[in-house]
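Quick entry, no commentary yet.
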Amino acid sequence: MEMPPKSPDGSEKSPQELVTSNTGSTLYMSSRSESVWTSASRSKWDIYHKPVIVVSVGAAIFLFGTVITSLSCFLTNNKYVYKMTGPAFLSLGLMLLVCGLVWIPIIRKKQKQRQKSQFLQSLKSFFFNR
């Protein structure tokens, strides 16, 4: 015979109570992104920290690749190793650098759209909730 499931506080619940409970809405509410649904203003660092980090890492890797590639011109031992790894670091650094630099205007555009959307929502609620 199957026992009904127990809740965390130790009380037993019937299957009908489990189905009619508000766990579905709780899961739905917790799955929403907090930054989208709250109107709290965020600092510039909170908004742009990821692309800034990507640009910084990309620039560092690009410079490292430049140094390694230039070592192949000056050092004669392990010349082929420098010639293989230098361009790899150059391309990886350049890729990260460009991705970060493209990411920043995308974030700016999303911020402008969000501001317009919030303004239109407040305007709509002002006229239709009278």
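second:
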Amino acid sequence: MSKPYPDASPYPTAPAAWDPENKFSANIAPPPYQEPSPGGFGAGYQTGYPPQPQYNVYPAVPGQYGATPMGHPAAVTVQPGIYITQIPLAHPEPDYLGYSIFTMLCCCLPIGIAALIYSIMTRDANNIGNLDLARKHSRTARVLNHTALGIGICILVIWIGAVIAINFIH
């Protein structure tokens, strides 16, 4: 085993009873506590904790902050909780529920289902009194319904044109 430090180093390479093959064989006690030598590491500094100042502790006087009269426990005041109840809107946004059911069944099923979901979310937002959310969902339901109706009309026109073309050819 090579030495990591030169021979003049104050650090030993390994303890005397250390066997690198068997790590449990060395029962070496730690070195005893020694006060630092003057001029060594930490010279000129106080070791340990500084002395703490002593405070005079007087008995509590009744009526003074933190004292309880006649040994009664201190009263704890708890403020009541605040309950917020939301009421339905006075002028609710239109939810287009009937329009959504029509477009779902007669025009375009996937877009009609999405419009139906937004219609139900509009109704829920109206019931809890959230005007901004109701407006947003109402607008989305209307756009989806118009889109589904447009797709349904286009499909109907193409289908009628195909039927006329097939009958005209025969």
